[in-house]
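The instructor's notes for this session suggest beginning with a concrete chain rather than abstract definitions. Hand out the sequence below and ask the class to guess, before any prediction is shown, which regions might be ordered.
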Amino acid sequence: MMGSIVRLVWPETGLIAFASTFNGKRYATSWIECRGETSPGVYRFVSQFELDPRVLGQGGSIIHSISTFEVDPGLRPLRYVSYARGAVLQLVWQGDSVVVTFPDGTQQTVPAGGAAYVTEAHMAGLDALLFSALFHSGQLEQPARATFFFVNQLGALSCQFSVASDLASSPGEHWYRTSFQDEILLDREGRLLCNRNPLQGIEIRRLATAPAKPEVTEAERNYRPAVYTPPPAATFRAVDVTIPGPVIPIGATLTIPRAADASQEAAKRWPAVLFISGSGCHDRHGIAGELDFGTHEIVDALSESGFVGLRYDTRGAGTTGLGADYLEAGLDAIIADALAAYRFLAERPEVDNNRIFLIGHSQGGTVAMALATEHKVQVRGIALLATVARSLEELSFDQLESHGRHAGLSDAQIAQQKALLQESLALIRAGKEFKAGEVPDIHLTFQRNVPWFREWMRRRAESMVALLTCPIWIANGEKDFQVSADKDAKRLADAARQAGVATELRLYPLLDHAFKAIAGESTLASYYDPQRRVDPTFLADLRSWLIQNSQDRASPA
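After discussion, reveal the predicted structure:
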């Protein structure tokens, strides 16, 4: 028999389900059921969702996730396990702490923050449990504050609830508003009927009849992440290596050209390139799940042309773990990993360390400039691919508008989101602590990103590029909706030339952010097309510039 508090806040029997829509288009279905007392004093809830990222303006195939949530008879959290696409995240409550086991097996302990409830994005059933508990405790009868553990942030968030008497409801139903700008509709029994956020265009409604749940195991069998395949008849050899990183060993691959005379190969020293990828979690080949950015195509092509190439996994991808600093790491940690990769490459016996080049894509271009200007690494040249010149604020506002319009947000929604983002960035610039009571609740979801934002704000690309003392090659696709040929590439080139930096600028009218050709408009969804390849003209231009500068025997910068 269910414990008294559990039974009180969750009188449901069987399976209940919710439909999630984005601006009226259904993008997810979620389910929850209580399995009762599965062991003495332990009650288990099982929640599941099925999500189509394409409706949200993203790309890739359907995502399935399932989670189990165990509580004690007083509804206090004990254990939470989330499973999606073969990756398992586990949280175990131990007093005032939560022990987190990440998909790579590493563990980290974080404060529980006094959280009495647990929620995760898209798991509407967990919200139903949370609001039912607040309703039956009487906390919703007056403005009240509750703390819940947000799985996506791995931290506690504080939220205020108040009656929304201005919203029309049917007899026996009541609207409530949260300090996260959510609007919650409960029936007379405290059951969640609707959870919506007009700012985001999201609405979640309870279904009268729960549809059958999909089999997660079948969905996982159908999931096929992209896989790197070496080019046939390659004239280089690929060697997997481990770089001694500043925090955790970094998995990487060296691609080493084969000498024309095999007997001379051991004595040969080649020019080299270090590829520094953009933001996000992807492996050394530029692959993240179904998305392939084509890093391997670029580095392989250069190794075919006589360059040693080094590419490496970002934190949490490939064979590189997350590291003990994962939850607090920002741009400085990314730069430190890149510096370790550069030093590893410079010490390789196959490499002529007077002819090392950096190739930085997107955020990687900023990292490359930081290595040259802040850490004074010796390089023959730097290739900046789709690298930002704009300030973080200008870039963030432009990207928010671009993504918002493509996803179908209204002008009013975009304007509201811009205003909220502007407030968050102002708080970060002011050095505010993103903790409950220090900043408005709605900004607390930024807390894990604050180090990255703060460390990025300390750097201005136009100032950094002007300090470079080596030749640079700047390239941008004119169909790139993330980094602009006009607002970024041209501005970087102008700043470099004004400072006397030897600069070559190449713009490609039909290429996108990944330097792949696209016939129509470039979108996030188009990144997931497995048939698209890095443009051969772009590759030839990059290769030509590298060869020309590797043959120049001037003293390296």
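Then share the key points. The chain has a mean pLDDT of 90. Residues 394-447 form one domain.
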